[in-house]
């Protein structure tokens, strides 16, 4: 009940009315604009002007000035007064008679019939169905038993429009449209005076207490029900609002949206129509009248008039919020939607939602708070600013004034309860994430992102890295110290990197790897750094940290260079020569890098190939120098060397041969000779020294791989010659020679072979070779014959075509005309156009001149 | 409801207001969400009407004080707004009952399973209040406080507790203690008598088996089923009401035109 909805302000004191006449009491009042009329039991009407003034503190006071008072000339009290400003008339009920008097001078209207007799009570229809602006419809309870009459009151006359009878004697009346709401002696009813249809509402006992029938809006009435209830009823007889609970002794009720005000013997009670709750109670003794007039509520004791001044809605709402009554405040705000201009309402509504959000936030009701913040379009920084140190030092934000809440900061809110603080922080994280993903952070992304970064760092939240790795607006000067404070060095590096300070980023990371800083975010940080460097566009930084990386692990470190994206190399950003030069210190890395260049990237540069081959050779030589040489390693090293020697043709052969010296690297040596086209030496080495027939055959195939078959034949013949060369262990070589011939029959010139083969060899031995050679020759011959035949036939065909196109003879005579000028031929010279058309030579020449595209092809094809 | 709204619009043109009114009108009260359909809970005092509604709306059981007059809640059910009226059981407010029931689409007649009298009261006192309900109104007979007599309703408590830890329950009785005075058969017999009172054919009406419920607001037993069954059953009547409104809206727009024309003449 902490709402202060109304203030009771005295309006007219007794000194202006009856003075000290004890027996004179107020009977009725009417308020119309600034005019206040008071009717008394000694048949006077007083007319006051009521001036409202508001003090600087917002306090409303009234000063009244009596304009007139007039005795109606009867001896009865003035029971009711109603002003009709459009007609400038006052309708007065006195001594069971309705009179119409002038509003200004209170003189009765004398012209016409302006008087209704036998009236117990009357009411004005504020929502009349007839559209006549120059009359007022009133409903009266007639002294005639069980009758209600409808009158039209004009400026100077009254006229009865309708009379309806009621089942019981009515005792209170209200009118809206066609609907009469009546209190009968035992029940309330709604009566449609147009159709006569009646609708029972509910029973009550008029003997027990005075009924209240109060129109509160279109087709809706407020009725005093048994048990001190205020019941709402529509013209259809339905209750659309829950009843309000008054006391049993309620005397009068009035409505001042959104409140229902009721008067009983000791109090004024204020209920909200929105939630039916009792909102305010004011003590008021001896009240007799309570009425609302155009949004004002007036009440009287027997001697004085007071006004109930509604406090501004915003004040009421703020009071509710101050009392932490969020729900009621919002209901009240939204209830006022239709009574306030839209723009103003939206501003107010937003602010109240924000305040409500903060109240709920303070109560740790986060989901509700979030909803209010969202609907209230809260500047998210208002919320961030509650958390100490989260807003960047340079943020221009200041909290809105007047403040949206009364928390100094989070610690004040949580009163030192760390659990609460943590809850609030978790909430802020989730809220800021939502804000980021919507467009709620427009204009202050830096503040939002920086705050989020700080929260993540503090809470050791896994999303910290995601935040830094994605598009963000974290402020470096503010975030960096914070990350350091929370030992988030890896994240700090990311932050530097995001801000283009790769050097600083690497510095931090290197210190982590070296154990100077403790941050276990990434166990593979070293590899990460290498990877980072391999993509780093800033070469100075790369060079700066390459030493560190290579010293740690050459194998991994060299990836800085080997993993560089290709495009960059093409731009010449990182020159391989520089890298090679730089890597001289790190032989292993150099090998890896050269392998990368030569074998993977296939860089066709002699330098690299030679250098790699030399390095391979050095390795082999150094391994062989050991005693005993490690077999497996030697094999592997030689395999690589051999492969390179074979595959590459760019290295400097002679240089390698020299370097090889006397080492027993026969295979390699043979390959090198092969590269020099010294096939004889090569084969000699393979056959005589290495005694590896298959290697020799392989050599022949390899060495002739990209050459023609003649070259290949030459190599095989060389090899065969070596086998057949006397002076060595005869038999074995003969077998090798036979095998060679039989296996590679097609690589030999059979005739030449037969000439060199020793006489004594059996035919059987060479059968596979011979049969294949024979077949080959036969095949060659037949293929050649076929080709010859085909060529001949093609030639014939072409010959035929030629003859055909040469065509038959063309006849020119004096009777024939030229196809171009249509004149006859006078001499035998003519030009024959394609298709055998004869034309004059000059015509053909003319035509050729005229057609620009064919200027040059006007040569006569034939002459006759 | 829409009918009325249309009238409001038609009559509130500012031109007319100025000329016709001797005093300005009341402020236009905030239009609350207009309910599409009305449910009313009737029954003797202390049978647990407010608790039932509270259990359904707030998902918990709490001590309530005797309802003064009545209260209502708005429940969003799909696209529709259903107003649920909780009435006062006290004799004092009995007269208001028929007004609450006016135009109702469903009425819950509630009794206490441990009190034969509460069932009898339904027939003696409350049945006549339903005369004002809409013609196609459906009736449900609800026996509350089943947890006092029925082991099954007590067990439910455990399940409910998990889903709504906020429920305030003093130590539940180890076993149903109170004597069950009203059995489901009695309630079903009452339901059939209601149909006869309404002069409805039992064969074409909803069967007693599905319209008699035993519930416990305290444990939540059967409460959701009760309300949701009724919501589903009143949906057709909402549709019908909306259709009716469509027809009448057309009429009113015509009359609104007439009114406009009239105001023209006066100017």
UniProtKB/TrEMBL annotation, chain A:
InterPro entries: Clathrin_H-chain/VPS_repeat (IPR000547), CNH_dom (IPR001180), Vam6/VPS39/TRAP1 (IPR032914), VPS39/TGF_beta_rcpt-assoc_1 (IPR019452), VPS39/TGFA1_Znf (IPR019453). One of its GO terms (cellular component) is cytoplasm. CHCR repeats lie at residues 564-728. One of its GO terms (biological process) is intracellular protein transport. Residues 23-297 form the CNH domain. Pfam families: CNH, Vps39_1, zf-Vps39_C. This is Transforming growth factor, beta receptor associated protein 1. It comes from Paramormyrops kingsleyae.
UniProtKB/TrEMBL annotation, chain B:
The keyword Signal does not apply. It catalyses: GTP + H2O = GDP + phosphate + H(+). PROSITE patterns: RAB (PS51419), RAS (PS51421). Residues 159-182 are annotated as: Disordered. It is found in: Cytoplasmic vesicle membrane; Cytoplasmic vesicle, Phagosome membrane; Golgi apparatus. Pfam families: Ras. Its EC number is 3.6.5.2. Its main location: membrane. One of its GO terms (molecular function) is G protein activity. It is a lipid-anchor. One of its GO terms (biological process) is protein transport. One of its GO terms (cellular component) is Golgi apparatus. Its cofactor is Mg(2+). It comes from the Eukaryota. NCBIfam families: small_GTP. This is Ras-related protein Rab-20.
């Amino acid at each position: 009940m902490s709402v202060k909805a109304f203030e009771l302000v005295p309006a007219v004191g007794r000194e202006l009315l009856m003075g000290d006449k004890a027996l004179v009491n107020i009977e009725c009042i009417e308020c119309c604009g600034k005019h206040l009329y008071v009717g008394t039991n000694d048949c006077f009407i007083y007319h006051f002007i009521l001036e409202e003034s508001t003090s600087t503190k917002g306090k409303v006071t009234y000063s009244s000035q009596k304009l007139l008072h007039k005795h109606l000339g009867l001896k009865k009290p003035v029971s009711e007064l109603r002003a009709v400003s459009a007609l400038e008339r006052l309708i007065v009920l006195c001594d069971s008679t309705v009179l119409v008097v002038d509003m200004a001078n209170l003189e009765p209207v004398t012209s016409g019939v302006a008087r209704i007799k036998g009236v117990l009570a009357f009411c004005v229809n504020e929502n009349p169905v007839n559209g006549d602006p120059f009359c007022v419809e009133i409903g009266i309870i007639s002294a005639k038993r069980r009758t209600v009459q409808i009158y039209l009151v004009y400026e100077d006359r009254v006229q009865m429009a309708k009379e309806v009878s009621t089942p019981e004697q009515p005792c209170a009346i209200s009118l809206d449209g066609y609907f009469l709401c009546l209190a009968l002696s035992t029940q309330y009813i709604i009566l449609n005076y147009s159709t006569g249809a009646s609708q029972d509402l509910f029973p009550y006992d008029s003997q027990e207490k005075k009924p209240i029938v109060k129109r509160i809006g279109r087709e809706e009435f407020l009725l005093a029900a048994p048990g001190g209830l205020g019941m709402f009823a529509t013209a259809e007889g339905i209750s659309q609002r829950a009843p309000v609970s008054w006391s049993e002794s309620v005397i009068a009720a009035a409505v001042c949206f959104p409140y229902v005000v009721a008067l009983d013997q000791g109090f004024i009670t204020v209920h909200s129509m929105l939630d039916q709750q009792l909102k305010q109670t004011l003590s008021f003794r001896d009240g007799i009248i309570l009425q609302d007039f155009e949004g004002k509520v007036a009440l009287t004791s027997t001697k004085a008039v007071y006004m109930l001044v509604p406090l501004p809605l915003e004040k009421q709402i703020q009071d509710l919020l101050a009392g932490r009554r969020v729900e009621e405040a919002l209901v009240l705000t939204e209830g006022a939607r239709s009574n306030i201009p839209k723009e103003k309402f939206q501003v107010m509504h937003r602010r109240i939602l924000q305040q409500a959000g903060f109240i709920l936030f303070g109560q740790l009701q986060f989901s509700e708070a979030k909803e209010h913040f969202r609907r209230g379009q809260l500047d998210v920084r208002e919320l961030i600013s509650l958390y100490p140190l989260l807003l960047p030092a340079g943020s221009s934000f200041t909290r809105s004034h007047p403040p949206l809440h009364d928390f100094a900061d989070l610690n004040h809110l949580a009163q030192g309860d760390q659990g609460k603080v943590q809850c609030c922080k978790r909430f802020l994280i989730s809220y800021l994430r939502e804000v980021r993903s919507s467009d709620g952070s427009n204009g202050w992304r830096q503040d939002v992102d920086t705050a989020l970064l700080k929260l993540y760092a503090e809470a050791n939240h896994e999303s910290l890295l995601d935040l830094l790795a994605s598009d963000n607006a974290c402020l470096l000067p503010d975030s960096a110290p914070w990350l350091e404070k929370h030992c988030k060095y890896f994240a700090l590096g990311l932050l530097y990197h995001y801000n283009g300070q790769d050097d600083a980023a690497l510095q931090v990371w290197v210190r982590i790897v070296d154990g100077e800083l403790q941050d276990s975010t990434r166990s593979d940080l070293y590899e990460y750094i290498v990877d980072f460097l391999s993509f780093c566009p800033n070469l100075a930084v790369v060079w700066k940290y390459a030493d560190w990386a290579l010293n740690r692990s050459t194998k991994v470190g060299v990836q800085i260079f080997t993993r560089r994206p290709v495009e960059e190399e093409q731009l010449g950003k990182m020159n391989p020569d520089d890298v090679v030069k730089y890597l001289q210190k790190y032989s292993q890395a150099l090998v890896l890098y050269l392998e990368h260049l030569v074998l993977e990237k296939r860089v066709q540069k002699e330098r690299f190939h030679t250098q790699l081959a030399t390095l391979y050779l050095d390795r082999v030589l150094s391994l062989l120098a050991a005693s005993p040489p490690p077999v497996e390693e030697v094999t592997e090293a030689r395999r690589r060397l051999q492969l390179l020697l074979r595959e590459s043709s760019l290295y400097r052969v002679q240089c390698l041969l020299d370097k090889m010296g006397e080492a027993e690297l026969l295979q390699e040596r043979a390959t090198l000779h092969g590269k020099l086209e010294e096939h004889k030496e090569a084969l000699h080495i393979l056959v005589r020294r290495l005694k590896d027939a298959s290697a020799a055959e392989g050599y022949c195939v390899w060495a002739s791989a990209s050459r023609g078959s003649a070259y290949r034949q030459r190599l095989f013949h060389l090899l065969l010659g070596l086998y057949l060369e006397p002076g060595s262990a005869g038999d074995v070589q003969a077998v090798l020679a036979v095998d060679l011939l039989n296996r590679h029959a097609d690589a030999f010139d059979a005739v030449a072979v037969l000439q060199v083969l020793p006489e004594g060899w059996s035919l059987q031995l060479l059968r596979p070779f011979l049969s294949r050679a024979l077949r080959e020759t036969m095949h060659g011959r037949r293929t050649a014959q076929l080709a010859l035949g085909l060529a001949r036939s093609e030639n014939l065909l072409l010959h035929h075509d030629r003859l055909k196109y040469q065509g038959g003879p063309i006849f020119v005579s004096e009777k024939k005309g030229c196809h171009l000028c249509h004149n006859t031929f006078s001499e035998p010279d003519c030009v024959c156009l394609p298709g055998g058309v004869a034309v004059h030579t000059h015509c053909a020449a003319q035509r050729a001149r005229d057609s620009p595209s064919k200027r040059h092809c006007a040569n006569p094809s034939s002459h006759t | 409801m829409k009918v009325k709204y249309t009238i409001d619009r038609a009559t509130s043109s500012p031109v007319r207001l100025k000329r016709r009114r001797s005093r300005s009108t009341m402020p236009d009260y905030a239009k609350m969400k207009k309910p599409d359909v009305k449910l009313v809970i009737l029954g003797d005092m202390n049978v647990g009407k407010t608790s039932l509604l509270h259990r359904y709306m707030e998902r918990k059981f709490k001590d309530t004080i005797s309802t003064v007059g009545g209260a209502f809640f708005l429940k969003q059910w799909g696209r529709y707004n259903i107003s649920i009226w909780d009435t006062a059981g006290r004799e004092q407010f009995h007269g208001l009952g028929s007004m609450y029931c006016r135009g109702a689409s469903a009425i819950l007649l509630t009794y206490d399973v441990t009190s034969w009298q509460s069932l009898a009261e339904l027939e003696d006192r409350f049945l006549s209040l339903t005369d004002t309900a809409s013609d196609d109104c459906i009736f449900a007979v609800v026996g509350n406080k089943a947890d006092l007599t029925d082991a099954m309703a007590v067990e439910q408590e455990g399940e409910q507790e998990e889903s709504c830890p906020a429920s305030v329950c003093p130590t539940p009785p180890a076993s149903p203690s109170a004597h069950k005075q009203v059995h489901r058969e009695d309630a079903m017999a009452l339901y059939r008598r209601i149909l006869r009172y309404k002069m409805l054919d039992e064969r074409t009406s909803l069967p007693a088996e599905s319209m008699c419920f035993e519930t416990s607001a305290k444990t939540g037993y059967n409460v959701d089923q009760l309300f949701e069954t009724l919501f589903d059953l009143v949906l057709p009547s909402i549709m019908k009401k909306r259709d009716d409104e469509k027809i009448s809206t057309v009429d009113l727009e015509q009359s609104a035109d007439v009114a406009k024309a009239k105001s023209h003449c006066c100017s």
